[in-house]
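Researcher: Structure prediction, please.
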Amino acid sequence: MTTYQLTFAGAAISLAVLYLNLRPWWKGGRNPKDLLPFGGAALLGALSTVCTGGLLGWLAGCSAQGANTAGEKAVPGTTGTQGAALARGTLDQLTPEGGVVVFLLTIAVGAMWKAAGKQDRRRMAGGAFCGATLCLTAGVAGALSGLPDAANNLGAGLKAALEGQGVL
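Model: Predicted structure follows.
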């Protein structure tokens, strides 16, 4: 398993994407429904950081590498300063049941992507990027530490329901 670390300059790129996605919502009507494309994809991006050995984990690693590469060019090019690595954070592990929940979330986000217009697709891409990159920092990973447990518990409940355990 490869572990990725986000640099401060890479985090700046992620924060810029976050700002550019949330600003129109903030300036607009602030309807929570308008956050769904960005938020759903950000949730999937965050959970992808714990998907070891799978396509989602690989994409999360590519997001971190892309953010670091862009940040190491953009920040020094703009300010003349160099960045350093941030404290690495990790989320807990997924159980097989949690993996099923993440798979189903991937299908839901994929269906949203297919039905979305160009603007919402950009928001979704930004959300997945921000979720996958910012969850590599100790602060965001700590704030979202219950996310894998929520997926694991939801998956265990779904499994129990499908097996007829404790249903009605």
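Model: The radius of gyration is 17 Å.
Researcher: Thanks, that helps.
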